[in-house]
Predict the structure of Glutathione S-transferase family protein.
Amino acid sequence: MNPTITAFQRSPDGGRGLARDTRIRWALEEIGQPYDVRLVSFDQMKQPAHLALHPFGQIPTYQDGDLVLFETGAIVLHLAQTRPGLLPPGTHPARVATWVFAALNTVEPPIIEREAAILMESDTAWHAQRLPMLNDRIRARLSALSARLDGRPWLEGAFSAGDLMMISVLQRLRSSGLLQEYPALAAYVARGEARPAYQRAFAAQWAINGAPE
Amino acid sequence: MNPTITAFQRSPDGGRGLARDTRIRWALEEIGQPYDVRLVSFDQMKQPAHLALHPFGQIPTYQDGDLVLFETGAIVLHLAQTRPGLLPPGTHPARVATWVFAALNTVEPPIIEREAAILMESDTAWHAQRLPMLNDRIRARLSALSARLDGRPWLEGAFSAGDLMMISVLQRLRSSGLLQEYPALAAYVARGEARPAYQRAFAAQWAINGAPE
């Protein structure tokens, strides 16, 4: 039986591929693991049946027989260990994990904070003053990451789960204009998006979220 | 040779144990792995020698022979896999990883956002209006976590790396009063802090950060 993931019945991003199930789909495509998808509504996400899988009432979840996982980072690392494709030979798996955590814990938080400010505080008196501060916190991370890439195509030798997660995080900046300030990072994201596995993952979520009703 | 971690030469928290090296020390103590510590100043953290270990210029780092790791979550998961003590027998390692990610990616971000607001925006016109919003975002996470614990002593059977990380995250709320609104979580944190391995880790960082100069 295929593993089953959950995804939004209708993603708030309208098919731009920024919902976190796209990250899991991409990982599954990279390792060549077929999967099933169960769509959940916002209402269902807060019901006991879904909370039993994901205590914080979010998507995605991952079920494979008795094993139930949530948290995108944990699911991607687990998939990286089940089949070849996301842990390059010759690279220590803990180095790959380091980059997965760096993407989620060091690079993504200021990006999410910026999104939350735009979503929830746009009509406040303080938003216009706060936004430049938030942008500068993001720039500090992008600058360090760009320096670390330093001409390398990927973070650790060949493409890994760390790149998958880092690129997925950076994609959230597309509409901000911030990514374009760092051409090496924009090119890095483009390299990830050109991968056939990413293309398949994007198309699969687009079929649900992007196609007209 | 023992592995070497880096820590603040003088932690901004004055020895309360909230700097992230305490999490690594605790993990090392749980698995009974002796370690060496190299202290770095804020200036050294931004120099090339340290950036080669940690591209984002932070602590802690972990070095064991040729292996260099950064990101607390990755280091703790790596330690969990090297010696018994943080992956309870009978629990799938990916479940433990799920809780490490949940602590760092779902529970900690709104806590850090609150700390950043207090540190950087206390003197702004908007701070008094924004703080209640931030507190409510934290409460949503605490409420879900408390429901999930539901009388269990630990998140997955016996004590694991997931508990170590979740408790370390919740400790940051001590001065906020928010943790006390959830007695099950306050008791959970106290259970973690009562562990001899935590006591040793706390004492080791206190000797550097808390003792009078």
Notes: The longest strand of chain B covers residues 4-8. The CA atoms of residues 74 and 125 of chain B lie 39 Å apart. Residues 93-121 of chain B form the longest helix (29 residues). Chain B has nine helices and four strands.
